[in-house]
Structure formats: C-alpha cells, structure tokens
Amino acid sequence: MEQILINLVSGALGGVGAGKSSPTFDLGMAGNIISGLVGGGVLGQVVTLLLPSIMAAAQSGNLSVGGIVSQVVAGGAGGAILTAIIGAIKNKAAA
Length: 95
Description:
Protein name: DNA methyltransferase
Order of helices and strands: HHHH
Helix content: over 70%
Distance between the termini: 41 Å
Shape: elongated
Organism: Bradyrhizobium huanghuaihaiense
Oligomer: single chain
Keywords: Membrane, Transmembrane, Transmembrane helix
Radius of gyration: 14 Å
Transmembrane segments: 29-51, 63-89
C-alpha cells in the first residue's frame, strides 16, 4: 500500500512539474495532477513488477531507502511523461 501512495504522490508532483515547465505540456493544475496520478501509478506498478526485489521488500514490510527512491523516481517520471504526452496531443489537436 505504501508503494502505491508513493507512486501516486510522486506522479502528481511529476505531472505538475512537467506541466509548469513548458506551456506546451500544461493541462491546468487539475489536469496536470490527474494525469500525473495516473502516469505515476501505472509506471510505478510496472517498475514494481519488473524489479521483484522491491516487491519482496514491500511485502515483508521492510521497504528500504533504495526501494523508496526507485518508487519516487518511477512515479515522478511516469507522471511527467504522461502529462507531457497528453499536453502535446492536446496542443497538437488545438492547432
């Protein structure tokens, strides 16, 4: 459960960061947060599935600093990537 929360929070922050970094990607505050939540949650879970050591540590209740950092990075990257993709598509369609 902690992993999902870490992914969602870092994804939301990544989405807001990506949206505010460039007007091309900005979806508005709510749009950036929502796309960041989705992107962070999805990529965070993919990373968990690809790295079984993180999953084993989380299930044992022994989540290490390395595991937390990898979840934050994956969630933030996922949020930023999805926000950038949706923002680019939205702006391309508007043009």
